[in-house]
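Input.
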Amino acid sequence: MNSSATTPGIVEWQQPAGGEGVLRFTGDWTLPHFSELEAQLDAIKPCLPETPDVDFNDIGRIDTAGAGLIAVALGPKCLQWLAEHDRDVPHELRGLLDTVSEAVAEIYAHRPPPRQTWGFVDLLADVGGNVVHLGHLGAKLLAFVGMTLETLARCMWRPKRWRTTSLVAHMEQTGLHAVPIVALLSFLIGAVIAFLGATALKRYGATVFTVDLVSYAFLRELGVLLTAIILAGRTASAFTAQIGSMKVGQEVDAMRTMGLDPMELLVLPRVLALVIVTPLLSFLAVLAGCVGGALVCWFALDITPSMFISVFQTDTPLRYLWLGLAKAPIFAFLIAVIGCIEGFKVQGSAQSVGERTTSSVVQSIFLVIVVDALAALFFMEMGW
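Output.
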């Protein structure tokens, strides 16, 4: 190679009349001239035969960028053959071409398949794959629910194995610390529902039924549903992040090595804590929502608090409250179990912790809404 050459590289396809063509490389084939060299090769590539004769005698400087361009243009097999058999190739260039051709051949061997356009069959296949994936997720969730219930039944009659300190600590974190956000959001949602009800019912002269709208909505559905959604976003993610961080730090493996049961130490206190505090938070959400609705009725509809309470007691059956609160332990159990199982699925990196945390929140909210819809249909069919 000529180390003193400073001109940009040039590639020419020379084919004399009646003779065999030669691909001639001259000048510098280095990174500063990459764009120009790539454009020349793209323009000349359609004219090349499968295995052209190559002349490297006048080539100047060359680095891995230039050798890579040549390898892509000629193909790794052709370039490797030239490096091994063409004695006109300079010795310094032979080793570089051989190395680059091996690297390009490795890339070609693992080239991703070309992206195909989607058809109806592909759409059905994708839907089927997602359904199978959901089935696997459901099976794993049912298995984890069974393990949780088995651990609960095993520890229930052994007070020495109760983790009272952990239970109380998780009740404080999931329940007491969630009181402000649950109360505030329920209060605001109650005010919004009362305002919308007043706006819609005013044209019919039935604004007094805004009280029934607020009471029915919060006692039966919104009180427990808002609480469950808040806990799904706040507590399920916390459970996943806590257990996932322990999984990354190999603390879960250390527990198993010492003969301790992670289900008993990590899962059971969290599940029981959430099952205990969720009905209490749901009741608080019902109160806060009704207070928000009562304030809107007072200031917008001239329905005094005493009148609001009177209509509330007369028109709203007490069973609505029990029907709403009865769903709270079920929601709490599902949220806690999903948060814990996603934590155990962490693979050992911070990225995995983030992915599983997001998955736990999405799954929890989705499952809570599905179960609430099924419960509403069941209550309606039962006439409750």
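The radius of gyration is 35 Å.
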